[in-house]
Amino acid sequence: MIERRALSWWPDILLLAGFVALTVALIQGHLLTIDQRVAGWAFDHQPPVPYWIARVFNYFGQGGQVLTPIGLILTGVLFYRTRSVRALFPFIAAYVVTYLTIGPMKLYFDRAAPSYQGPFKVEMFNPVASGIYSRSYPSGHMGNSLVWYAVLGILIAALLGRALTRREFLAIRVLPVTIVFATTVYTGFHWLTDSIAGLLLGLLLARLVERIPWNTIPLPQRPWTGPAF
């Protein structure tokens, strides 16, 4: 069993406060000029080679096409090794926490993406944008990435039978998310503040997932409910 490090609640409170403050500021019309300037610079500096390199690297943040299959494979290997249903819990948790938070927020705030060509494109609660163009805030690329890479870290640590080293942590938890942040803004998939909001919310959700004591969640005493981590 891997020894778990207790997490302080103060970072979570600060992350939540930062997300709320940023959201309120955007609703009141602040920071919109910064978003437009960053997006304008990005669209003006997209020669084919750098742009498509960024598009490819942005797949590090694709939940359905990249992160979910990798998470499913690691979950399957851990389940095969431990024969414990607990091995499935982190994978399920990633879906639950993102589905109940990021998705509904995108629909509620109804903010158009930078690539939207209609009016009010940078404002929250856009009355005319629809479909994929009205689901920009907060960035699902960022929020989902932080949660999924946290889960991948949990699963990999369980398979290794030890905590991740500093280099492994940076390679699994930090580097991919940094790449997703940069490429998401550069390609114009999201406004800068969308990605910052996704970063704050995603890190909060990732810390929530990390707090769950997978091996001590009450379950009936059965051979398939033993420790997995």
Question: What topology emerges from the helices and strands here?
Answer:
Elements: H1 10-27, H2 32-44, H3 48-57, H4 63-82, H5 89-99, H6 102-109, H7 140-160, H8 166-186, H9 192-211
Helix pairs in contact: 1-9, 3-8, 4-7, 5-7, 5-9, 7-8, 7-9
Largest sheet: none
Number of domains: 1
Distance between the termini: 5 Å
Number of helix segments? 9
Order of helices and strands: HHHHHHHHH
User: Residue share in helices?
Assistant: 55-70%
Uncertain runs:
none
Q: How would you sum up the global shape?
A: elongated
Structural class computed from helices and strand pairing: mainly alpha
Observed structural traits:
Vanadium-containing Chloroperoxidase, domain 1, 229 residues, mainly alpha, 9 helices, single chain
Short description:
By secondary structure, the chain is an all-alpha fold. It contains 9 helices and no strands.
Kindly describe this structure.
By secondary structure, this protein is mainly α. It has a single domain, classed as Vanadium-containing Chloroperoxidase, domain 1, CATH 1.20.144. Helices cover 62% and strands 0% of the residues. The radius of gyration is 19 Å and the shape is elongated. The chain starts with 9 loop residues before the first helix and ends in an 18-residue tail after the last helix. The model has no long low-confidence stretch (mean pLDDT 91).
